[in-house]
Amino acid sequence: MDQTRLPREVVYRECHDERAVWEAIKTLQVRGAPAIGIAAAYGVCLGIKSAPDDEQAFFQRLDEVASYLASSRPTAVNLFWALDRMRRRAETLRGQPLDLIRKALLEEVRAIHEEDRALCHAIGRWGESLIEDRSGILTHCNAGGLATAEYGTALAVIYEAVAKGKRVHVFADETRPLLQGARLTAWELKAHGIPVTLICDNMAAEVMKEGKVQAVIVGADRIAANGDTANKIGTYGLAILARYHRIPFYVAAPSSTFDLQLSHGGLIPIEQRDPREVTSPFGIPIAPEGIDVYNPAFDVTPAELITAIICEKGVIRPVNKETIAAILGRALAGPERAQTVVK
Ligand SMILES: CSC[C@@H](O)[C@@H](O)C(=O)COP(=O)(O)O
C-alpha cells in the first residue's frame, strides 16, 4: 500500500525490481521499521531474479543488491537486520543450485514476513497488561499495522487492550513534518473503530497537564544495547513531557529493532531529510524561499526516560543493558549479532 496516498486513497503499488523497492522505501511509500525490513528483503528476491548463472557472479550480485537496498534509509536497523538475514541464508547454501538458493531466499522473506505478524501479536499481548481500563494513551508517528506485517507495535498494545474489553482513548500526535500521525495513525485507528483524537505535536504538554493521558506508547527504529531509543523526531520531547507529568512512557518494538552492537544511542545514525519536507509540506509552500532548514527524521530518547520496553519476549523494565540482554536472551557480544551491511 502506498502510504503517501493515505488517507485520501488506498492505492497498491507493485514493485518489479529492486530499484522500485529502493524508491518506495526512500519516498516513504512503505515506511515503519519492520515494514521496510520486509520490503527490502523482498527487494533482494527481485534483484537476484536475473542474476548470472555463475555462483561467484550470483553472490556478487546478491551483495550489490543488498548493499544498494541498505542505502535507502539509515536509521531503522530492521532494514539491515532483514538484509543480513537474507545474505546469511544464502551463504549457508553455497554450492547448491542457484535456483534452489533463489527459492530458499523467497521462503526466507516469507518467514520474516510471517514472523513479524506473530511478533506484533506477542507485543500486543505483553503490552496490554500495562494499560489500565479507561486510559488516555498518547502515541506519536505511526507504529501500527501499516508500519509492520500486521497489527503494529505500539498500536498492537492498544488493539489488544481494546480486545480485552478495556476502554481507551487515543491521542494521535500529527507528527510534523510528514504527518504520519494525522494521515496514518488517525486513519488506521478510525478504521478499527478505536476512539482517537488528533492533536498537533505542540499540544501534547497541555493534553497531559489536563490529565487526559495515562500512558505514552511509541514504536522504535533502533534501540541501542543500553536502551537508548531512536524513533520519529518529537519522541524525545514527549518522553521529557511524560516524565514531568509522571506519566509512564513505553516503547514497543520487536527484537529485530535492537542493535546490540551499539553501546548507546549517540552512535545511532540519524537520517537527515529533504528541507522541502519542512518548507513545502505536500507541495504547499509555507516558509520564505531559501530559508535555512534542519530536518532530522529521528531523535534518540535516553533509556532513563523510558519506563519499559515491550518486545515479543516480554516487558523490559527497568531499561538498561543487563535487563535488555537478559530478556533478549543473547550475550551482548554474541555470535548472533547483526552484521550490518551499510550504516
Ligand atoms: C513499528 S514502526 C516504528 C517506527 O518505525 C516508527 O515509529 C517511525 O518512527 C517511523 O518513521 P518513518 O519515517 O515514518 O519511517
TrEMBL record:
EC number: 5.3.1.23
Coiled-coil stretches noted in the UniProt entry, renumbered to this chain: none
GO terms under biological process: L-methionine salvage from methylthioadenosine
Pathway stated in the Swiss-Prot or TrEMBL entry: Amino-acid biosynthesis; L-methionine biosynthesis via salvage pathway; L-methionine from S-methyl-5-thio-alpha-D-ribose 1-phosphate: step 1/6
Superkingdom classification of source: Bacteria
Residue intervals passing through the bilayer: none
Catalytic activity: 5-(methylsulfanyl)-alpha-D-ribose 1-phosphate = 5-(methylsulfanyl)-D-ribulose 1-phosphate
Known role: Catalyzes the interconversion of methylthioribose-1-phosphate (MTR-1-P) into methylthioribulose-1-phosphate (MTRu-1-P).
Binding residues annotated for substrate, in chain numbering: R31, G32, A33, R73, Q180, N231, K232
InterPro entries: IF-2B-related (IPR000649), IF-M1Pi (IPR005251), IF_2B-like_C (IPR042529), Initiation_fac_2B_a/b/d (IPR011559), M1Pi_N (IPR027363), NagB/RpiA_transferase-like (IPR037171)
Protein name as annotated: Methylthioribose-1-phosphate isomerase
Any GO MF annotation of the entry: S-methyl-5-thioribose-1-phosphate isomerase activity
Keyword field: Amino-acid biosynthesis, Isomerase, Methionine biosynthesis
HAMAP family, per database record: Salvage_MtnA
Site (Transition state stabilizer): C141
A Pfam family assignment: IF-2B
Stored NCBIfam families: eIF-2B_rel (TIGR00524), PRK05720.1 (NF004326), salvage_mtnA (TIGR00512)
Similarity-based family: Belongs to the EIF-2B alpha/beta/delta subunits family. MtnA subfamily.
Active site, renumbered: D221 (proton donor)
